């Protein structure tokens, strides 16, 4: 199926052929149905924003994709080169909470611990250091190599975590409110980097966010989730759909619309 | 052991070094120190100081069970008991939503009380007070052998698992996303800590063992910037305070474990003052 329109899609930089499929995806925890009948088809190079009220199951969906909690249905990744299904490599950028507060763990230590088997307490190989530098360069954070994690600002830490999630290169990148509680500059820089990444690498991105203004600016597709997929389309489609009012409540949407129109006006300058 | 004794004789031509018990104690310090330093750094990273304290205190109940079962030396019963306790505490974290602090605190107090009740039956508690204070000078060559095996065991475990321990201590979700079986790793770490703490209790003492575990790591944390420095400084501080404490206790005729902990506390104070320079 994804190979049928191969010729026209090959023009784009991200191949657009490989894709991640969620089929009849559902999660039950202790008899309670958290998610059901989630069907999503995500192409590489696509940034999909997952929105929905608290308790809608957004984080649960990410955790199920990561394999942290069991799920029903199928998660498949179709590779462009051979059209074969396999399990996707998933990268994950966590929310900024409880990050090694006060511990003397440097950025380089974090990368070495995640990417090599050599005990970090014995120091690092030159190769590891070069590899880490290359990873950090992708997110404009190479100057942070020797800094302690606890000394980084919120924005810097999220960029470092993004760099780590990109190594080894994932097929699917999951981000759970990666920039909540981070200042405007940090947030914009983060999203600019994410936009660059998805243009230049073959990866699909699922982003959970409550910031509807930023979502409409950077995502090309929005999925409204509340136990299952309520609407799925471009930001314009989804935010003008009546069902989002039902889910979020009209008051919330009125406030968000104020921000949305602001983002549209100012959007050109940033993007 | 003979090699060690002649080595000490050659290196330290002082009166203290002529006593057999001092030679043994010195070797014990050289083994226990680095072992506690590397475990302690990870305990502090995981915010588990309260957990290791509980394991230490619960040793009283372990001893009591050993005595009830009629063992002259309750060491193995203590180790088995603390392993079971470690398994229980680490699974409590997953099965309840109650604050782990509260649970661990209740377990700790209960275990101490239970131990005291059993051991004090018939008014014989005094003979167990050596476990409270610890007696490093009484260590025998046989026990040194066990300690060496434990030390090598910790080194091997750390060589294999260190990076996973570190990632888990940094952030659970992140560790999970890198394919690490977080729960298993936590259990392995809890059990390893429990076993080593319990092994060492009769020489360091229930009352102060946690300080000896935590203080050097806490001190090293104040003045280091990466994991390697952290471990290096923690090991140096435990060795320095261990050797200094041993000698001080010899000349002042004080309890060795407590003297060592006091010196470690001095190191902590020093690094605390220096901390602003390193941030």
UniProtKB/TrEMBL annotation, chain A:
InterPro entries with a match to the protein in the record: AAA+_ATPase, ABC_transporter-like_ATP-bd, ABC_transporter-like_CS, Metal_Ion_Import_ABC, P-loop_NTPase
Enzyme class of the recorded protein, top EC level: hydrolase
Swiss-Prot/TrEMBL keywords: ATP-binding, Hydrolase, Nucleotide-binding, Transport
Superkingdom of the organism of origin: Bacteria
Presence of keyword Ubl conjugation: no
Family annotation (Pfam families): ABC_tran
This protein's name: Zinc import ATP-binding protein ZnuC
Source species: Pelotomaculum propionicicum
Lineage: Bacteria, Bacillati, Bacillota, Clostridia, Eubacteriales
Gene name of the record: znuC
Automatic annotation (TrEMBL), chain B:
Subcellular location, record wording: Cell membrane; Membrane
Membrane topology: Multi-pass membrane protein
Highest taxon above the source species: Bacteria
Stored InterPro entries: ABC_BtuC-like, ABC_TroCD
Keywords, alphabetical: Membrane, Transmembrane, Transmembrane helix, Transport
Secretion signal span: none
Broad class of where this protein is predominantly found: membrane
Segments crossing the lipid bilayer: 20-43, 50-69, 75-95, 102-124, 144-168, 180-197, 203-220, 232-252, 258-274
Family affiliation: Belongs to the ABC-3 integral membrane protein family.
PANTHER family registered for this protein in UniProt: ABC-TRANSPORTER METAL-BINDING PROTEIN, METAL TRANSPORT SYSTEM MEMBRANE PROTEIN TM_0125-RELATED
Protein name: High-affinity zinc uptake system membrane protein ZnuB
Source organism phylogeny: Bacteria, Bacillati, Bacillota, Clostridia, Eubacteriales
Gene from which this protein is expressed: znuB
């Amino acid at each position: 199926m994804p190979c049928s329109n191969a010729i026209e899609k090959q023009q784009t930089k991200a191949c657009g052929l490989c894709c991640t499929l969620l089929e009849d995806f559902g999660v039950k925890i202790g008899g309670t149905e958290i998610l059901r009948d989630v069907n999503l088809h995500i192409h590489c190079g696509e940034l999909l924003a997952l929105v929905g009220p608290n308790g809608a199951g957004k984080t649960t969906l990410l955790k199920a994709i990561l394999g942290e909690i069991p799920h029903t249905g199928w998660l498949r990744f179709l590779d462009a080169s051979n059209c074969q299904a396999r399990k996707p490599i998933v990268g994950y950028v966590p929310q900024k909470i409880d990050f090694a507060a006060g511990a003397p763990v440097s950025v380089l230590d974090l990368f070495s611990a995640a990417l090599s088997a050599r005990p970090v307490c014995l120091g690092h190989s030159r190769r590891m250091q070069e590899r880490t530098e290359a990873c950090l360069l992708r997110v404009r954070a190479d100057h942070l190599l020797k800094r302690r994690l606890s000394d980084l600002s919120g924005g810097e830490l999220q960029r470092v975590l993004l760099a780590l999630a990109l190594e080894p290169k994932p097929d699917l990148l999951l981000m759970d409110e990666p920039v909540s509680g981070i200042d405007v500059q940090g947030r914009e820089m983060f999203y600019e980097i994410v936009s660059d990444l998805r243009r230049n690498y073959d990866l699909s991105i699922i982003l959970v966010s409550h910031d509807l203004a930023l979502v409409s600016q950077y995502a090309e597709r929005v999925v409204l989730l509340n136990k299952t997929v309520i609407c799925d389309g471009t930001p314009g489609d989804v935010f003008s759909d009546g069902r989002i009012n039902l889910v979020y409540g009209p008051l919330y949407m009125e406030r968000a619309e104020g921000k949305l129109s602001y983002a549209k006006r100012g959007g050109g300058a940033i993007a | 052991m003979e090699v060690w004794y002649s080595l000490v004789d050659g290196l330290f031509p002082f009166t203290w070094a002529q006593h057999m018990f001092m030679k043994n104690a010195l070797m014990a310090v050289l083994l226990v120190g680095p072992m506690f330093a590397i475990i302690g750094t990870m305990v502090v990273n995981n915010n588990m100081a309260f957990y290791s304290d509980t394991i230490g205190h619960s040793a009283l109940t372990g001893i009591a069970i050993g005595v009830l079962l009629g063992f002259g030396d309750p060491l193995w019963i203590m180790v088995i008991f603390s392993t079971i306790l470690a398994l229980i505490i680490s699974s409590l974290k997953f099965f309840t939503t109650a604050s782990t602090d509260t649970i661990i605190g209740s377990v700790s107090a209960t275990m101490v009380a239970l131990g005291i009740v059993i051991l004090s039956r018939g008014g014989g508690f005094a003979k167990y007070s050596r476990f409270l204070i610890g007696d490093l000078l009484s260590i025998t060559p046989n026990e040194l052998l066990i300690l060496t095996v434990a030390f090598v065991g910790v080194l091997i475990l750390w060589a294999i698992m260190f990076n996973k321990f570190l990632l888990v201590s940094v952030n659970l979700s992140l560790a999970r996303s890198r394919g690490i079986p977080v729960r298993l790793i936590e259990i392995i770490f809890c059990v390893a800590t429990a076993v080593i703490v319990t092994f060492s209790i009769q020489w360091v003492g229930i009352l102060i063992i946690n300080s000896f575990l935590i203080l050097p790591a806490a001190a090293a944390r104040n003045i280091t910037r990466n994991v390697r420095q952290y471990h290096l400084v923690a090991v140096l501080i435990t060795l320095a305070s261990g050797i200094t404490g041993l000698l001080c206790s010899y000349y002042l005729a004080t309890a060795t474990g407590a003297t060592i902990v006091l010196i470690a506390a001095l190191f902590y104070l020093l690094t605390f003052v220096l901390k602003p320079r390193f941030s």
